[in-house]
Amino acid sequence: MFDVIVVGGGPTGLFLACELRLAGIQPLVLERRPEPDRADKAHGLAGQVVRLLDNRGLFERCGGRGAPAPAPGFFFGGMPLPLHALGTENPMHLLPVNQRDLEQVLNERAAELGADVRRGWEVLSLTQTDDRVDVVARGSDGVERTLTTRYLVGCDGGHSLVRKQAGIAFPGISDDHVVDRSALIGPSDRFRFAPGGRVVIEGLGEIPAHFHRTDRGVFTLLAHDPERPLVNTAEWEDHPAGNSPGPGAPMTAAEMEESVERVLGVRLPLSPPPEGAPTMLRRLCGRNSRLADRYRDGRVFIAGDAAQVSHGPTLNLALQDAANLAWKLAAALRGWAPEGLLDSYGTERRACGERVLMHTRAATALMAPGADVTALRLLFAELLDRTENLRLVAALMAGADVRYDMGEEHPAAPTGWFVPPISLTTDDGHERRLAELLRDARALLLDLTGGNDLAATAEPWKNRVRHVTATAGDAPAPALLIRPDGYVAWAGADPDGLKAALTRWFSPG
Fold it and tell me: Mind telling me which InterPro entries this protein's record contains (predicted)?
């Protein structure tokens, strides 16, 4: 019998496998595709998830340099957010990594940690009892087998078989009036990038490079890689099929050019990327927004796109789902999970999914054509001139606006929030970032009191919670109890409060 079977070997399933291995659990990952997906999909990670990857030592492996730094700007609904105005309160971090490259990094990391990833395996059905889940899967040799596991996690995308077989509802809406088109193109003498995140297009002039809204739709030209910029259009159509050969027909460069001309009013001939570079021509007819009504059914869990889909930062959400679930499954498998710990996964992460669904729908509404939306954008721009509103929207976009219930909390303490970055000097005299102490995905008691009371309190939990004493000039509290997923479960200096938090999250010592 397996401890955990993960269905889906994309970024969510691979990261979950890595987290489980760090927790001492051996998962089995079943992936239907025989090879990693090299298609061009997401082009970056934004917000809190970037710091999560830094905590696991994956930020630099994905192309980042040093420690994540707050981004000076971002966008909401195609409107610029001057995040530099927030100073140290800016929660937005960016990591411009293509999804295929992220998946490669996670695949390599899973292999380093010894995860069992089996490609070419298709899950056909599942049934569960009180103590196990039986999975019928067709192996890479074409033979059907029944595999038994104590827990099953569906990371198998928006059309999740696991979710459907578990009977988990997936309510939501589909807006069939929006057609999105994307293409990777090569350099052109018809446009050039200008300072300040702008682009000059022949026959049109200088416009914002990220989002340019017209009466006919939205145009974006993103240059993560200047040798193969990404072109996007979004068109709102009463009859989407009128300008599209249909969702089943292949996307063509000519169709992309025609869409750009409809939105911008000028013809922009598009050339393919340089030879050997990945290519992409993609059309999405309609925008789907759905959220599972629950994230667990008995011994079956869902994560990532299997739990939530939207025209937004679903990959950011998915990786944090995996980090939240992994340590809780490990606790249950090792026999020390307190009552309700596994249920807290759905409670905590579904609240985050609700927020993402809300802000992606709001962003779509702000980019729609029409005079009424233009007026709304003018009002919204005035609201963003106020720092408190800018801070709220920034936290919303970063995924940093949901506070988990940690029980008794002091308003000024960071309990319930993702732990802030802290520079430390540990007892051995080394200067370290807090992220460096979180590489092993273990719970951490960061003790900055200089006394022995907290050490004695935490002693019975030493096999579950690592205790580190250090000094810090920028610490938000005398001591922090940090869960494996990076959230602060307790903050303060009171040994009784620490004991209560240790008991709540890690069972009696």
Answer: FAD-bd, FAD/NAD-bd_sf, RIFMO-like
